[in-house]
């Protein structure tokens, strides 16, 4: 069985192609992973779901995503 290669996607802001372990774009500083922003609290365990690039809100809990808060979508 062949290994599934993780496909890198270009930066949503500037189109720069990131390296495998990059979390932020080295050209414009934009986040490269669209995670949920819901933080851990005494009443909630937090949510760190990785959402699609076009998601303004988390598919798991409805909180804003990193891309929305950064003004990227």
Describe this structure in words.
With 73 residues, the chain is low in regular secondary structure. It is 5% helix and 0% strand. It has one helix at 66-69. The longest helix is centred in the C-terminal third of the chain and has 4 residues, at 66-69. It is elongated and about 40 Å long.
Following the backbone from N to C, one meets helices and strands in this order, namely H
Strand portion = under 5%
Number of strands: 0
Structural class, judged by helices and strands? Answer: little secondary structure
Work out the radius of gyration. 14 Å
Integer average pLDDT: 90
Helix content: under 10%
Give the termini separation. 37 Å
Major beta sheet, specifics? none
Q: Looking at the structure, what is the overall shape? A: elongated
What's the structural blueprint in terms of helices and strands?
Elements: H1 66-69
Give a brief outline of the structure.
The chain has one helix at 66-69. The chain is mostly loops. Mean pLDDT is 90; it is low at 1-5.
């Amino acid at each position: 069985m062949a290994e599934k290669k993780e496909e890198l996607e270009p930066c949503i802001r500037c189109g720069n192609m990131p390296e495998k372990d990059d979390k932020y774009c080295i050209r414009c500083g934009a986040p490269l992973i669209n995670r949920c922003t819901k933080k851990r609290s005494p009443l909630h365990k937090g949510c760190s779901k990785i959402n699609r690039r076009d998601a303004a809100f988390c598919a798991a809990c409805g909180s804003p995503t990193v891309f929305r808060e950064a003004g990227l979508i």
